[in-house]
Write a structure and sequence with these properties.
Layout (H helix, E strand, L loop, with lengths): L1 H16 L18 H18 L5 E5 L5 H8 L3 E6 L1 H13 L5 E5 L13 E6 L3 H23 E8 L3 H4 L16 H9 L4 E8 L4 E7 L1
Parallel strand pairs: 1-2, 1-4, 2-3, 4-5
Antiparallel strand pairs: 5-7, 6-7
Helix pairs in contact: 1-4
Length: 218
């Protein structure tokens, strides 16, 4: 088992060095680091999210998991934790889980779209950070919103969603993005309350990038 863990860690580091893998999240236990400001942002986000989900267990899904920092941390809390992303990132999460000997971590190597999202299983907690603009860029505003709505419906207890700033909507995404008024929670509150959410509250604010993370409860 020790040989397997060492080999998985080695494969991860080789993939990063050869630019086959581009982590924007750290995995400190495997000595995978990112730029200091980015690492601090990830850690600060997790502290805010952890406070909301730490008293519960169950199943957890991170959509757009990258190398899996949030997934690995959720597993520490007692969740059966999954990460969904493009294959190379999903496989990186699998390698990280093996390298750390985590038995309740698994990956879903899926290119999520408005059609296949309906086939996902339900999870107690689903998280979608910094992915909405990518969905809208590829599938248009209608397709992006459909994916987010389906993810909300697949969450049995909580959906954690990050709003996007007008800085994003004015860039390459343009008219494909709804107007979120500098990443405020107003759009999320109005949208998800109409879908039947019990509550929508801001749990983290990134003032530098005008983005908010909101917790949406069933």
């Amino acid at each position: 088992m020790k040989i397997t863990r060492t080999l998985c860690k080695l494969i991860l580091h080789i993939a990063i060095k050869l630019h086959l893998l581009h982590p924007y999240q750290p995995i400190p236990e495997l000595n995978i680091r990112v730029k200091k400001h980015r690492e601090q942002s990830v850690l600060s986000r997790w502290e805010a999210i952890k406070k909301e989900i730490d008293m519960h267990q169950g199943s957890y899904l991170d959509v757009g998991c990258n190398v899996g920092f949030y997934v690995l941390e959720a597993e520490k809390l007692g969740y059966v934790a999954a990460g969904l992303d493009f294959p190379r990132h999903a496989y990186a999460l699998s390698l990280a889980g093996l390298a750390l000997g985590r038995n309740n971590v698994f990956s879903l190597p899926i290119r999520l779209n408005p059609e296949n999202v309906v086939s996902l299983p339900e999870f107690d907690v689903i998280m979608a950070l910094q992915v909405f603009h990518h969905f809208c860029r590829v599938y248009g505003m209608e397709g992006g919103i459909k994916i987010i709505d389906e993810l909300w419906m697949k969450s049995k207890r909580s959906f954690i969603f990050e709003t996007e700033s007008s800085q994003t909507t004015r860039s390459e995404y343009g008219s494909n993005m709804p107007d979120m008024k500098d990443g405020s929670v107003e759009w999320a509150q109005e949208h998800f309350m109409k879908l039947g959410a019990k509550s929508v509250k801001e749990i983290y604010r990134d003032e530098n990038r005008n983005r908010s993370i909101v917790l949406i409860q069933h």
